[in-house]
Amino acid sequence: MDTHPICIAPSMLSANFMKLSDELSSIATADYLHFDVMDGHFVPNLSFGCPILRAVKASSDLPVDVHLMVDNPETTLEWYLDAGADSFTIHMEAQTHLKRLIDTIHSAHKRACVALNPATAVMNLDDVIEDVDMVLVMSVNPGFGGQSFIESTCKKIAKVKALCDEHGVNPVIEVDGGINAHNAYDVARAGATMLVAGSSVFNEHDRSAAIEALRSSAQRGALEAKRA
Ligand code: DX5
Ligand code: ZN
What is this structure's pTM? Predict the structure, then answer.
């Protein structure tokens, strides 16, 4: 099966919101923009919503993945579609009618991703793995930027990969939380190709260099996995 290219997706949550336009220009070498929507219920924190997504889409050419950390994705999805989202990441834990929501996303010709919190088992993916374009393995408990990477994530990524092989499918495997140039190698070696990074990009002065450091570390990990 074809391997997916390594993609780096800076998380806007760590950007300076007073200088959003400059912040977006500074990450132009990335592949995706990761847009964290938090509702204060599904996760304790609040972030931003549709008006900000509209503004972002008007000033950046990067495709935007909307990570919906909300209790009611079935209600809010349409708003984000309208605001220009390019793909959607929906939490397994937040959605009873996951297949219906995946169908809605696909009917709008957008990519559908299912996210697993650290405590959600990989086997829950068994009945949807053939329907999704991407699986997000959370490497922190969602809700805040700047948390430490949970080390057991690499094992979990490998389990997702094994499940995909069992089903003969090849969705993108994404990882989000505490990703830096050091562990980018490990997660890519385990099978992740889409890496979300907030602090390790926006806390650096030279964002292009930070993105490049993540990319080259992940590429080395992916190469090592191929060799093994
Ligand atoms: C956490 C968010 C992440 C977060 C990542 O709930 O989903 O996208 O912004 O930030 P870092 O890379 O700082 O952990
Ligand atoms: Zn996120």
Answer: 0.97
